[in-house]
Amino acid sequence: MGGACGDEAEPLPGAGLLRVPQGPWKVDGEDAREIHSRNACHGDGAGGDSIRRHSGEGSAPTPMMDGRNSVAARGAAGARGVAAAVALLALLLPFAAGAADVRVFNTANGLPSDWVTSLAPDPGGKLWVGTGNAGVYLFEPATGKGKGYRVSDGLSSDEITSIALFRGKVYVGTAAGLSVFDGSKWESISRIENVTLRNVRLAASPDGKELWACSVYLAGGTVRFDGTNWKFKGGKGRGLFNDIEDFAFLSSGVVMAGGSGVPYLYAGDDVKVIGGGLPPMSLYAVAERGETLLLGSSRGLYGYDGNWKEIPLPPALAGSSVFSIAVRGGRAVAGSDRGIALLSNGTVRFLSRKEGLPADRVTTVAFLDGAIAAGTARGLAVIANW
């Protein structure tokens, strides 16, 4: 059943297994009946999509990556310096008026579940939507219609953890294995070499040459697929890499965000830790923006230019956990536990539940043609004109 309108938090897919951060998909403590979306889970339980236009979301200059504007740099002066800097930031940063059309989809208007855990745009303009308890759904944003697939159709599990499109097929990571869809039928993979597939995280390279996957599980690990063969990428003194939450692709190699707080660069057969400057924290997401890296963590958004530096966000999002990052054409969007941030053209804009999102906690994001999709445990938001 869809858990978005209940008072209890949904369990994390595969939460009983080794180590999957509870933060990204844990339902926040909001009362769903108070969602500020017209006809969406109010006290009478009625639901439905709504289109609202909102103005006045915050906009602030994107920080320079030399650290002069970073909270980390100010933090050198101590806790009082950080507090003073944050207060000053709130006073001095300009906030430009803006607008966004937010349309919310949930079980009341077609989705098989309100609990959205992963998103992957389809080249045909559709969107693959993974859920935490009702399989995967091929969704058409323009019409609000779609088609769902579940265990009964061939999925390994109805608990979806990731989705990636690779060489004409759809790869779906689940809590109980990897499922592959060729357009007509599903194939399930439960084991690759010595890696048992559970809580699978997926990412396909932009050039279409490789698909990487991590099984976040005690008997898991990281594997690579070249379109023909799978290969285990751990071992030989390198470790299992069984806590990789996300991947990014650079010309110099593949970046792996370790959930325990370590970012790695995998280049050929060499693996090294990327830079320094990160405090102890959990890592959830990594993305490439040009040759710059963006890192989502339990302590905010970080950028890398030889060293990791915190990227200041508007006061409403400062210090929030960043669970998902998507990049397109120089623009970056980040989903956090306090809303969604858009970094574009030297500004940072944000939307939250107050501006029409189904929930503040945004755990997965994706760029669509002319829109942005944001997944929460209380429904899917499609944001246009932002």
Offer a concise description of the structure.
With 386 residues, the protein is mainly beta.
| Unreliable parts | 1-98
Main pleated sheet: 5 strands, antiparallel
Oligomeric state of this protein: single chain
Helix content: under 10%
Beta-strand content estimate: 35-45%
Question: What CATH first level would be assigned?
Answer: Mainly Beta
Cα-atom radius of gyration: 20 Å
CATH topology: Methylamine Dehydrogenase, Chain H
CATH superfamily: YVTN repeat-like/Quinoprotein amine dehydrogenase
Q: How does the helix and strand content classify structurally?
A: mainly beta
What's the number of structural domains? Answer: 1
Number of helices: 2
Could you give the distance between the termini?
32 Å
Q: Order of strands across the biggest sheet?
A: 1-3-32-31-30
Shape: globular
What's the average pLDDT? 80
Number of strands: 32
Which CATH architecture would you pick?
7 Propeller
Provide an overview of this structure:
With about 375 residues, the protein is mostly beta strands. The chain has one domain (about 30-385): YVTN repeat-like/Quinoprotein amine dehydrogenase (Methylamine Dehydrogenase, Chain H). About 5% of the residues lie in helices and about 40% in strands. Strands 1-3-32-31-30 form a five-stranded antiparallel sheet, with no helix packed on it. It is globular, with a radius of gyration of 20 Å. The chain starts with about 50 loop residues before the first strand and ends with a strand.
